[in-house]
Amino acid sequence: MSAQAVTIALSGAGGQIGYAALFRLASGDLLGPKTPIHLRLLEIPQGVSAAEGTALELTDCAFPLLQSVTIDTDPNVVFEGANIAFLVGARPRTAGMERSDLLSANGGIFGPQGRALNDHAADDIRVIVVGNPANTNALIAQRNAPDVPAERFTALTRLDHNRAVGILAAEADVPVDSVSGITIWGNHSITQYPDLSHAIVAGSPALDMVDPRWARGAYIERVAKRGGEIIEARGSSSAASAANAAIDHMRDWVTGTRPHEWTSVALPSDGSYGVPNGLISSFPARSVNGQWEIVQGLTIDQFSRERIDASVTELLDEREAVNALGLIPS
Ligand code: NAD
Ligand code: LMR
Asked: Which InterPro entries does this one have (predicted)?
């Protein structure tokens, strides 16, 4: 018997990540082979034609689970009844653009989208922000959606987490599924802290399995700058791996993380690990009964403390900047 249909909204549907995500969503990669899906695609006018092309191809795949695909430029229409929202479309930084211009332009996107989610989404809405600067865009959306529980707004650091797993597994020469206990802390930016203090590789502490100087030096830089490495190699930012990570994040949120394991999620802080309340920062997290829970009780040594604090300081600066621009209601 089929489950109840789920409405999935995705903004930036005509872009690269949209193209890499939509076919997987429609084929059941997110919610399994029994859950019918309605896709609601949000674009700006310039992106509508590309989204229409994607919609034609979705039809041509004849996915049994796909009940409908609609496209609109109005978030109030697209988010009507949405159970899940992937906020991918964002204003990229262009030459000569100041950081405040970028935050302001994105505030103009994520403020109205937050309000539209507040007014139109289903009661069980879950939101993941992918568009950069992802943590602060999520904060803007969340603060503009006062009727939606704050914890329903998250941002993508699962891509950083997956990168951290893949790069560690390659260094230790083990399969990826023998790596666990990695945490990405902080912002989805080069200040992020990929932390191997509690990581396990093939049953042993990661810091015994690889050179600890590499783990606390070149490794951190490699993971944190992987997005830039990909832009340089591909000529555009990561798309398939970003879509894959966003789907991993949402699937784990809905269906639960594997027993005794955790992943990395940017979510509103409850003050854990000294991260100021409300800041959308990346933590070690498990999904239990459909809700993210921050993993508690990890020891944080001086090296980790300094790196977590540095990334959190960047997030506080971003919050102050969007506050000063009037993008988050007090
Ligand atoms: P893209 O340029 O290929 O596509 C973006 C799409 O968003 C375009 O079709 C554009 O028309 C649309 N768009 C812009 N403003 C919009 C709005 N207000 N409403 C709806 N749609 C809008 O970019 P992409 O490669 O798909 O990347 C999208 C975003 O994801 C970028 O901000 C990128 O930096 C970010 N990203 C984040 C991560 C992460 O790990 N958090 C990883 C990769 C990329
Ligand atoms: C990534 O981590 O791949 C992206 O956030 C890079 C970018 O700037 O789009």
From this structure: L-lactate/malate_DH, Lactate/malate_DH_C, Lactate/malate_DH_N, Lactate_DH/Glyco_Ohase_4_C, Malate_DH_AS, Malate_DH_type2, NAD(P)-bd_dom_sf
